[in-house]
Amino acid sequence: MTGLQDRLTPEQVEEFGRELDTIRQRIVADLGKEDVDYIHNVIKTQRGLEILGRGLLFAGFFPPAWIAGVGALSLSKILDNMEIGHNIMHGQYDWTRDPALSSQKFEWDTVAPAENWRHSHNYIHHTYTNILDKDRDIGYGVLRIDPEQKWHPYYLGNPVYAALLAVFFQWGVMLHDLEFDRIAKGERTWADTKEVRTKMVRKASRQIGKDYVLFPLLTGPLAPLTLLGNATANLTRNLWAFSIIFCGHFPADVESFTEEETENETRGQWYLRQILGSANITGGKLFHILSGNLSHQIEHHLFPDIPARRYPQIADEVRGICEKYGLPYNTGSLRRQLGSVAKKLVKLALPDVRGNGDPSGPATTGSTLDRDKARTAA
Fold this sequence. Notes:
One of its GO terms (cellular component) is membrane. This is Fatty acid desaturase. GO terms for molecular function: oxidoreductase activity, acting on paired donors, with oxidation of a pair of donors resulting in the reduction of molecular oxygen to two molecules of water. Keywords: Membrane, Transmembrane, Transmembrane helix. The structure is a single chain. The protein is globular. Helix 4 packs across helix 10. The C terminus is likely disordered. It contains 16 helices and 2 strands. It is an all-alpha fold. The chain has a two-stranded parallel sheet. The protein has one domain.
């Protein structure tokens, strides 16, 4: 773990880990009625917005009603996806023993089956965060988002692929579980995906039937307007989720790591990797709620199973610990972080992303190990 260890001494890493463990233990001990009331209120708000939105679409012949209906339905889908579904399925409320808040039973309003997502996201991504060739969320098997990903002419379309992924994000999340990149490498066969595909078809059929058949038909002659309204709400949710997730994982200075660096990783080293491989987004209280508090991606990667509403409460403390140990705490506005991601996507579409214009030279961004090697060579 050369690159990560060079940040701090082994003793500092372990003390750093203990300080973060102390935060976690304090929050876990404090969980209670306020947390339960909060998530129940968010669920109640989400359901109210969905009822309001679908009701207004029955008056879709009146443009202001259609616009308001789409707006309410969009907010409903964003809340369901970000602050409710994502966080409940992380097990953040399993301690309540409430079946409605069970990570294993919850199903969200998106085409990606919850069971598939829990494996690819909760296990793969959060265990191997930003480890090249282990964390499949690096580029989602579609994009070149890290300079250590070998360039291919295919990546000249990087910005186009990213735009399409943003528009069809829920479908991208669903198809991500097929692991096309592993199939292409011969590590997995199409037959191996049968169970995953069956769940996908079942879930996608329900979602398509609900948004594009059932509810449009219920509005009779307004069916085309209702279908358009549902599609617009899904598009809004897709663009929002894409923006928040990419801004938390891929802005400039977010680091990636090699498998060699993370061998025999201690808890303190795991914490360190989460901080170096994540970024936050600044904003107000409503912004944080609509982002599922993934605007606090650093805190989320540190404590993925703690209720996300707690992240703003500990953000300053986590930042203070980073400052104490001389570690970066990557944060910025949505505009700044999104612009940084866009710049990276364009830059990495091209083969020459190395220092001094030399494709074989040391990477200007990338894994800590490679940067440390470059500094040593210099």
